[in-house]
Amino acid sequence: MRILVTGAQGCIGAWVVKALAERGMEVASYDTDPDPARLRMIAPPELVRRVAREAGSIEDTARLKALVREGGITHIVHLAAVLMPFCQAQPVAGAVVNVIGTLNVFEAARDAGRPVRVAYASSAAVWGPEEAYGGGRLTEDDPLKPSTHYGVFKQANEGNARAFFASDGISSVGLRPWTVFGVGRDRGLTADPSLALRAAVLGQPYQIRVSGKMNMQYVEDVAETFVRCLLAPLEGAWVFNLGGDIVEMDAFVRILERLRPEAAGLVTARGPQVPVAWAMDDTQLHAHVPDIPHTPLEEGMRKTLELFEALRRRGALAANVSKHT
Ligand SMILES: NC(=O)c1ccc[n+]([C@@H]2O[C@H](COP(=O)([O-])OP(=O)(O)OC[C@H]3O[C@@H](n4cnc5c(N)ncnc54)[C@H](O)[C@@H]3O)[C@@H](O)[C@H]2O)c1
Fold this sequence. Notes:
3-stranded mixed beta sheet, 7-stranded parallel beta sheet
């Protein structure tokens, strides 16, 4: 078993690589970014050294195919993507990375010369805004009405995964996270709760750029869920909602202030509601994949604050400049 993780230097990627390497699995990472900076924040140097690194872009069809075929890859966790703000600003460039890049991953799996399983990140952004639905928890059978280019691209990827199973028998699992939070989350609109936790530890003011509700999922759980979906012997093109804890941003700030009283008044939340329905039913995921973890929101926030605090103490936090993209 040899596992390729695309987008491995990103937030979820770093935690997925850590979860795989801790199981003793052979991991190869692929990303335009050669620097495992996020993995270094959460894993010991010995683990970081064990992960093979390849710098390259997901749009490079020939390179990706060669990597999968010649590298003996049997499993792929596909996370490489650009996020919602980038896709809204540059839909063409966003589609090349997110849609063509995902097609490349599936073509590389098809042409590997051996069976290759794929777990890939879809997104809750395949849902439209809350007003587009009648309330209640959305199941995988509800109609997708994405209102952003990013969500439309993710919907296309789910469709292409189905087509690759129908025509080539490639089994895959797509997961739909909403707001993943924790150490390493610093890109995309929904990075703000994590950036706020980081600012609180640094004693800096921070304004979360959105308000209203988010469905929040602790990054370590999300990474573990990707790994469990990758290793589950599911045949077909599966797509699963991912559960989490729904919270108003003002309530998030109150929990933060309770966990870290010295940060009182530093963090505020102002801006629009993220245009994605927040209540997802994850019965299907639990029915098909055993032992999906769930860290309650407050516990995940506490763990994140502790990890940021440990990084701050060893001088490894201030250098991690946040990227508002
Ligand atoms: N974080 C969330 O809340 C969330 C929610 C829903 C879905 N997702 C999806 O999960 C996946 C990972 O998200 P993340 O939060 O870790 O994002 P991230 O931005 O932290 O990581 C993405 C990684 O992909 C890499 N990448 C970007 N363009 C690339 C390209 N052209 N070729 C190769 N690598 C490229 C980046 O360098 C980065 O390391 C993405 O597919 C994202 O759409 C994330």
